[in-house]
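Support request, please re-run this one:
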Amino acid sequence: RNRFGGTALHSACNHNAAIEVIEALVNVDPRVASVATFDGIPPIEALYTSYIQTIHGHMAVARILKGGVVEESGHFTRFWRKVVFLATADRRDEKVADSTRLVLHGILRSSHVQINFYKLPLKHEPSLAEVEDEDGNLALHLLVDRRPFRLKEREAIEATLAANREAASKRNNAGDLPLMAAIRNKIPWSNGVDLLVNVDPTTVQQRDVLTNLLPFQLAASHGGIVALDTTFKLLSVQPDLLLVGR
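Re-run finished. Output below.
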């Protein structure tokens, strides 16, 4: 490592090295793709930061985030190949038929990622939001579980639902709904819990697999101002749940 805690892979990403160089470094030891600097920057984040500092990179990312498209060959395509490789390099989901589709999962597992980097795959290839890992988790499940964008949580949840609205209704292999995970992790109502409910209001009627509680009961069980507000808002959606919850 260098004095900042960076590895040779960080250096390669920082200098926009060719995909062959990045592949060679990772193939020696796949764990290097998950090693962060002393400031918590993983190689994949270094790659993104370096790319958007170039004129071509900045323009391409801005265009995609605004809903535009870029050429299927050239500067962005080379960058995207590196993103896909690094996001799936640890092979954590070998049981998945095509692990190279788990780009969003890989990005969310990183310790430090900019929200625009997370939104980039959602805009460039929305179908990635429909991909499940070996535990049946969609990107939305990991997003509300790990909470990597607390200051921009609503923006992240909104972007994910825009790519795949059905995700709000999807239970993972453990039977967990994104709404239940969001409540369990004390995400404030205004941070995006309301978006989950608005997309599928029937989720307020479903019970948590772990506790058999309804969403409003699960929220109330945590206590605190956030839980109180969420409990009230959930009951406002369907007040008669007070009778069902007895």
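The chain has a mean pLDDT of 91. The two ends are 58 Å apart (CA to CA).
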